[in-house]
Write a structure and sequence with these properties.
Length: 146
């Protein structure tokens, strides 16, 4: 949590005039997002069996892939919004756009992740660390490096 507060501080105050800082940091939910995330994390730690009998634990396999690919999908949705705005459609002022953006980002990120797996660019569930010869991808990396 301390590291997250430092990131919010740096992005909000030191990089505010830069494009990166303005893209990542939104002052309306910077600190509150960190505190809410920490509270949710602590609550879920206190309730380990909360979603045990649901399909949700199986979805954890895709969590990192969605996390890694969602900025790209969000950037595409943002470019779509800007294109529609430039064509005269006031989509940003429509509530439906704001309701659909988050689910579309998550579903789009999952699609990108699954497509990368289908194209054999990644292995879902593979553990890749130095000396790990258990996965095919790690074997290919080790062979390439030698």
């Amino acid at each position: 949590m301390f590291l997250a507060l430092i990131v919010v501080y740096v992005l909000g105050y030191h990089l505010r005039s830069e494009a990166f800082g303005s893209y990542v940091y939104a002052p309306s939910y910077g600190i509150s997002t960190v505190l809410l995330s920490a509270a949710l994390f602590l609550f879920l730690l206190s309730q380990p069996k909360l979603f045990a009998n649901t399909p949700l634990p199986a979805w954890g396999t895709y969590a990192v892939g969605i996390y890694v690919t969602h900025p790209t999908v969000f950037a595409i949705l943002r470019a779509l919004r800007e294109t529609l705005e430039s064509m005269g459609y006031a989509i940003d002022s429509m509530i439906i756009w704001h309701l659909v953006t988050t689910p579309a980002t998550i579903v789009g990120a999952l699609v990108v992740y699954l497509l990368a797996h289908k194209l054999r660019l990644i292995e879902i569930g593979a553990v890749i660390c130095p000396g790990n010869h258990g996965s095919k991808l790690a074997g290919r990396i080790n062979t390439t490096i030698r």
